[in-house]
Amino acid sequence: MSVKEYDLIVIGSGPAGENAAIEASRMNKSSVIIEKRSVQGGVCIHTGTIPSKTLRETVLYISGLRKRSVYGLMGGIRPNVTVKELMYRKGQVIQEELDVIQQNMARHRIEVIHGTGSLAGNNTVSVEDDKGEKQVVKGNTIIISTGTHSYHPEGIEFDGHYIYDAETIIDIDILPKSLTIFGGGVIGCEYACIFAHIGVNVTIIDKRDKLLTFLDNEIAEALVYLMRKYRINLILGDDFEEIKIENNQVVIKTKGGKNITSDRALVTSGRQGNSYNLGLEKVGIETDKRGLIKVNDLYQTSVPNIFAVGDVIGFPSLASVSMDQGRIAAIHAFQKDDTSCINTLLPFGIYTIPEISMIGETEQSLSEAGQDYEVGRARYYELARGQIINDHDGMLKLIFDPKSKLLLGVHIVGERATELIHIGQAVMTLGGTLEYFINTVLNYPTLSEAYKVAALDGLARLRNRA
Question: CA 44, CA 51: separation in Å to the nearest integer?
Fold first, then answer.
């Protein structure tokens, strides 16, 4: 058997793997991607970020929420909307994204081998295709970017018809009248909002007493208020005892004594690393109980020439971060003295309805650290643009140091939150203060004006302190 040799072998073609291979190509290194699917892209393209966010936009359009009764016109969901209609745009976007990925592979001269890869040694990967045929490739560096899959708690039978996980829900066969979601994390809340806005009766069950506890409390409470406003039923501080199918419906019995019956159920109980069958034990690479690979600050595993990036290494498990992790790992692999690293000031985006985004400190994190702070708020209804788009629920919140006026955190709930956050990110990264927003002219009318309104509010609060 002939063995091909490369400078870099990448196992997994999601955002992290793709960017690792592209960066190696930029350094004139030969690279190959091993991908078990028939097409590239990973969970991000096929069942995760891209399809779920596309479905969200479809729902916003079909439900009429984008119209928001502007000029007296009232939008609403058609009673006969079908799953096929909801998923039509999803298929289009996925195909367009795949076309872009394949063009990138060709332009950067990256070879792709379709099959399941596993480590046969520190520099060797064995690849088996769907016909059972095997080949071996060798590389100076190996980068693992195999991602994650939904964690399946014991006692739940996931059949992809009545009970779904985060991957299979995107292919739901009917539009149910009712849906129970077990797990109120980011994925659970996003899908709850999506289905609630097309008329599905949604119930969320979560073991925690609060949703999304990593958010600033005020923002999390605003989301909870709006979710309840859109008739999402929240059962918090409770766990499931039994989930079963009865009379073509899902019946969930909770430890708190509740019985919830719905047409379908979605279980989102976290993620599991795709590290099984990778042959990690052959080279002495360790994982935690969820299958996540342990790495150092350079993304190296315990084997120096084998790196791991993306969701398979755990937090923060963001496609945006994974892209840079792949890029940085490739740089460190081939330029040993390079000091490139990812900016630790990371923006987080949650695609609920409305959107939420945050960066930096929260009120509770500063309080726990004993650090003094002040806040400034801008409500969307205070903005001309907010009135024009008829969004009265949105809010932007700035947290800053009262002495230096340095910006410490930005928190947004409302239209375009995940876009607006980058203004605050840039100011924080460059060590900016509230004065930047006060003295900077912003386009009018825009939602970006919220920064100026919030800064003025913050300064007014400082004056009231005196």
Answer: 8
Q: Beta strands 374-379 and 395-400: pairing type?
A: antiparallel
Amino acid (1-letter code) at residue 147: G
CA distances from 325 to 33, 186, 209, 359, 429 (A): 16, 22, 33, 19, 19
297 Cβ contact partners less than 8 Å away, ≥ 6 residues apart: 341
Identify the helix (H) or strand (E) that includes residue 265.
strand 264-267
Q: Which domains does the chain have, with CATH numbers?
A: 4-150+272-334 (3.50.50.60), 163-269 (3.50.50.60), 354-465 (3.30.390.30)
Which are the contacts of 457, defined by CB distance < 8 A and separation ≥ 6?
376, 377, 378
Say if residues 138 and 126 touch (Cβ distance below 8 Å).
Answer: no
68 near 389, Cβ under 8 Å? yes
pTM of the predicted structure, to 2 decimals: 0.91
Structure tokens of 366?
């500063």
Q: For residues 325-351, give the mean pLDDT.
A: 90
Torsion of CA 111, 115, 118, 124, to 10 degrees: -40
> What Cα–Cα distance (Å) separates residue 374 from each residue in 96, 306, 366, 401, 407?
45, 45, 10, 6, 10
Paired with 32 in beta bridges are 9, 111
Q: How confident is the model at residue 72 (pLDDT cuts 50, 70, 90)?
A: very low
Question: Which of 166, 139, 149 minimizes the C-alpha distance to 7?
Answer: 139
Query: Which residues are bridge partners to 144 per DSSP?
Result: 11, 308
Euclidean distance between CA atoms 351 and 360, whole angstroms: 19
User: Would you state the pLDDT for residue 466?
Assistant: 67
Beta bridge partners of 348: 358
Could you list the beta-strand ranges (E) of 297-404: 306-308, 348-350, 356-360, 374-379, 395-400
Residue 179 host element (H or E) = strand 178-182
